[in-house]
Amino acid sequence: MLRAQTGGDKILQQPYTPPSRQGTILYFIQHIQKTTGISVSYSSSFLHLNKKVQLNGTENTTGAVLNTILQGSGIQAAALNGKIFLLRESSQTQYYTISGFVKEVNSNEAIIGASVYDPLTRKGTETNAYGFYSLQVPDTCQGVVFSHVGYKPRFQHLPPPDEGQLDMHLEAQSMLQTVVVSGEKESVTSQPGYLNMPVGYVSNFPTLLGEKDVLKSLQLYPGTGSSLESSSNLLIRGGGADQNLYLLDGVPLYHTGHLFGLFSIFNGDALKDVSLYKDAFPARYGGRLSSVVDIRTKDGNMKEWHGSFTLSPVSGNILLEGPIVKDKSSASLSVRRSLVDAYGGKYIKDYGKYYLYDVNFKLNQIIDSKNRIYASFYKGQDKMFIQSDNPIIQLFDDYNFDWSNITAAVKWTRVVNPRIFSNTIATYSRFYNLFTQNTTIPLSFFDSLSVRGKGVSRVRDIAIRNETEYAINNMHHLSFGGGYTYHNFAPTAYHTNIKAGEATQRQAPIYYMSEISAYAEDELRLLNDRLIVRPGLHFGALAQRSSFYASAQPRIMLRWQLPRSQYIQASFAKMTQFVHQLTTPVINLPTDLWVPSTENIRPEHAFSYSLAYQRQWTNQWRLNVNLYYKQLKDIVTTNTVLNIFDNSDLWEKKVIAGNGYNYGSELLLEKTQGKLTGIFSYTLSWAWRQFDRINGGKMYPYKEDRRHNLSLALKYRFNPKWNVSASWKFASGAPFTLPVQIFPDFDWGRNINGYLDERYSPFSTYQVNYLPYISRLNNYRLHAVHHLDIGATLNLGNERRFKHVISGGLYNIYNRTNPFIVSFDQFSYFAYDDIYPLQLYQYSLFRTLPYLTYTFKF
């Protein structure tokens, strides 16, 4: 390392005794100058002066000391004209790593997806789901830029590399940049196959009855839809609702609907943001075929206490968040409860008694600059009771529904070193539903039999997993991890009690299973960041007493940057699903069964391919065009209606496995900034299913096939107080099956003691049953579903401590009658000479509905 010029060997060989064996580089340089009188010249831009070093005790000259303290730094000592110069070696530029967290200035909330980059080299990275970043910069770098849509960008000079983490706080800004609005940003990050939506975006457009629903907001984008009008149930690229992996703070959920799917269980006031993956799945995700919906709740404000109260036509919601110890720990609590049962009046109560509630709670504790603990809890429940004497819908039974979700998680995040970030999480999840039915069976005109049935179904998971990120350098970002899940499935447990006799119980078999997962993924940035390649592998295995399944699931994504902010992206992913949902053919009831893969039922598989083009203009306009093809194998269905009352030990025999084919194209045009913002999305898609024992083995349209799906949403801000919005949604009608002929069953071969089999009609009759002849499944389509909604929002007190938000609007402004359920039935009124043949009936749920909501914030 030492270089001597004329007379330099004497300077570098001059005797020198260091005062100690430990110290910083600057300490030893200053002591050499003070003791020997020799001038030492250097540049602090590439010499890390505060780096602590240790001598070995044998150094006794200036050159020997400098050689030891500069070892491995890429700096060499040279002597010339009585001076010592510390020079960088000419072989290569030296790099060092900076890391830290990016947070909001007013709340200390972590900012997900913030950009951190060197403005000279344009090399950069993004913060992860916990706001952490790791970036290698050259020693000539003077500073980096921190930015995120919805926040003011900030340039920060770099401190010496040994001074610990570089944490940054960004200040939120309004889209008009006229006043600073802290809290909820409203801009969506969109890439082909991926969408990140902050919670503030949810209130941008009109909503049904004023309920902010993040899943319905996702439905504005291409490739997403719903099974029924205004349902929050997501359908992604022709897949079923059970093929979506929903994560709430990292905990998987098995049921996400309130009020039979009209609203989701995700309380908009409690959420922070949501990420949706439709393809190019990161390797850390597994277990479902169609999508991943990763939802995170608010961490809690660490600076000061804040809260809000929201009142809508449907529910009331209270949110409180603030510090337990300022800048060290925080808590967030949100409670939502339906109000329909409280003030619904006689008309609402005629339908039955119904209420729901949600509770979200989260603790956030900073241990030190490298360690943080999160603890989160959620419970939501629905209860509904419908009496047989209901004057609105004539029923013969009393029904009681009761279903609930409970999740809990404890999460530990640790910065192992500036390049390695680790996240370890232990979770608990339980979905439980109860369905009772009281039936009176007339044996004659003078006698009857009372039967009470009770069905219980449950899914319980306990899991632990680890996710680790290793920023090898700016070109390689490696992530890896694994986990273990203990499953406990009790699909059905059926109890009956006839009058006062002995109760009959048919307990369901309980399935105890272990699921093991592991993954590894590397993100490579090549050709000066013009090409991003992300290869990965996810491994999953399911083991129980009688079966074992293992699946290797390769993933790869390639993203090529073209001139003028254009991108081409291609991806492939194999996904495996070890659990199945056996559903009713109409709506998403809580009586649907979650069942595991068994010795007789194999896991489901999906092979997903996509090709996309993206273009951006002046950071305001964004265009995405996406083509996709997905092949499904071993997907399951049933040849009858299965629900919680089915004989629990027979459900496996009613399951049929087959294949599916989903393909289509998506178009998204979005304006993200300015007074006028909006979305135009269009999806052209096909979804087919094929089962050997159904429809003669021929392919038929899947019940969730929607040929055309279009959304147009616009928002205009007059000023920081006033904005108006409108949205129009259109979806092709759903496929359904109609018989081409009907004929009487004179021998009552399908009747049970004079009553129709419930698979063909819910109505009992003493008359001859009419049997349908079906040529093929889903041979007709319902009418298209479309509606125009408008809304307006007034914000008061933005510059004050207390704020008021008033929102109002109209749903389905032109009063469209959209099909909710279509059925065909034979009606009879217990008269032997009055027979009404098969007729088709359409039931609509919503016509024009106004709403008005009020929110108080402090």
From TrEMBL:
<keyword id="KW-0472">Membrane</keyword>
<keyword id="KW-0813">Transport</keyword>
<keyword id="KW-0812">Transmembrane</keyword>
<keyword id="KW-0998">Cell outer membrane</keyword>
<feature type="domain" description="Secretin/TonB short N-terminal">
    <location>
        <begin position="38"/>
        <end position="90"/>
    </location>
</feature>
<protein>
    <submittedName>
        <fullName>TonB-dependent receptor</fullName>
    </submittedName>
</protein>
<dbReference type="InterPro" id="IPR011662">
    <property type="entry name" value="Secretin/TonB_short_N"/>
</dbReference>
<keyword id="KW-1134">Transmembrane beta strand</keyword>
<dbReference type="InterPro" id="IPR012910">
    <property type="entry name" value="Plug_dom"/>
</dbReference>
<dbReference type="InterPro" id="IPR039426">
    <property type="entry name" value="TonB-dep_rcpt-like"/>
</dbReference>
<dbReference type="InterPro" id="IPR008969">
    <property type="entry name" value="CarboxyPept-like_regulatory"/>
</dbReference>
<dbReference type="InterPro" id="IPR037066">
    <property type="entry name" value="Plug_dom_sf"/>
</dbReference>
<dbReference type="InterPro" id="IPR036942">
    <property type="entry name" value="Beta-barrel_TonB_sf"/>
</dbReference>
<dbReference type="Pfam" id="PF07715">
    <property type="entry name" value="Plug"/>
</dbReference>
<dbReference type="Pfam" id="PF13715">
    <property type="entry name" value="CarbopepD_reg_2"/>
</dbReference>
<keyword id="KW-0675">Receptor</keyword>
<keyword id="KW-0732">Signal</keyword>
